[in-house]
Amino acid sequence: MISTENLLFAWIGLALITFLYLLRKNAPYGRHQSPGWGPTIPNRMGWIIMEGFVLLVFWAWFWHLGLPQEPQILILCGLFSLHYLHRSFVFPFRLRTQGKTMPLLIMGSAMLFNLVNGSVLGWDLSQTNRETASTWSFGLGFLLFVLGFALNYAADSRLIALRKPGETGYKIPDGPLFRFISCPNLLGEIMEWGGFALMCGSLAGLSFWIWTLANLLPRALAHHRWYRQRFPEYPGERKAIFPFIL
Could you give the CA distance from residue 198 to residue 218 in angstroms, rounded to a whole number? Predict the structure, then answer.
């Protein structure tokens, strides 16, 4: 029988393949959307469905097995839920993207991704015999998660504020958060899940962070290229996602 550990390693291997694919082919939603990807759905509805779905998957494990009593696990469940409640029911209604759509294929792919990752983390955190992270790694991870969440929220707020009500075009983002990189919002999410992986102290948590990198690093590079191509005056010293590095 294939062990859970081997299945997780296979899942991580698929993340690496996905990373290489996304370096060559932009995921077709948002500014990178193009014709030929089939039927579409209103942008806001797509976000609600694909991001809300993971909460159902994740909490189904605890509905079936019971809520754990360990404080560390309860905090992890709370942080996971905080992120996805925000992405499902707050973030979509802050967007000024009237009339924009996303392909149903992208929404379905995201739901499949969330089905697996929500199941992996739900299964991992619902195990009564799992080892918990050390105090220092849990504390460091918590700090990293909070800082990442704050950075993600602040950067998204700045991007949303660039559009006046009724506008749908794009502008060069400015302000302190964007001085050195094009995508501080994506860096914030990478920090969040890196901190979460430290708090989990498990291969399941690590696999989720690796998938985050596989999706968001190519996305940041694509955004950065897009800005440079669209705006000749785009700041030349600005990197994509890691200040002074990438």
Answer: 23
The whole-angstrom separation of Cα 62 and Cα 146 is 24
Tell me the two tokens of residue 235. 């700041």
DSSP 41: E
**Residue 42 gets which letter from DSSP?**
E
Please, are residues 183 and 215 in contact by the beta-carbon 8 Å criterion? Answer: no
Integer Cα distance of 246 and 244 in angstroms: 7
Mean pLDDT for the chain?
88
d(CA 72, CA 76): 6
Looking at residue 59, its amino acid is W
Portion of the chain with pLDDT greater than 90, in percent = 56
Token pair of 245, please? 């590095």
Q: Helices marked H in the chain — which ranges? A: 4-24, 43-65, 71-89, 91-94, 104-126, 135-161, 184-200, 203-230
Confirm if 189 and 196 have CB atoms less than 8 A apart: no
Number of H helices, E strands in the chain: 8, 2
What is the separation, in whole angstroms, between the first and last Cα of the chain? 42
CB 144 within 8 A of CB 212: no
Q: Check pLDDT > 90 for residue 76.
A: yes
Contact 183, 218 (CB under 8 A): no
Using CA atoms, how far apart are residues 167 and 151, in angstroms rounded to an integer? Answer: 24
What mean pLDDT comes out for the span 24-51?
A: 79
Q: Residues 6 or more apart from 141 whose CB is under 8 A from it?
A: 133, 194, 195, 196, 197, 198, 199, 200
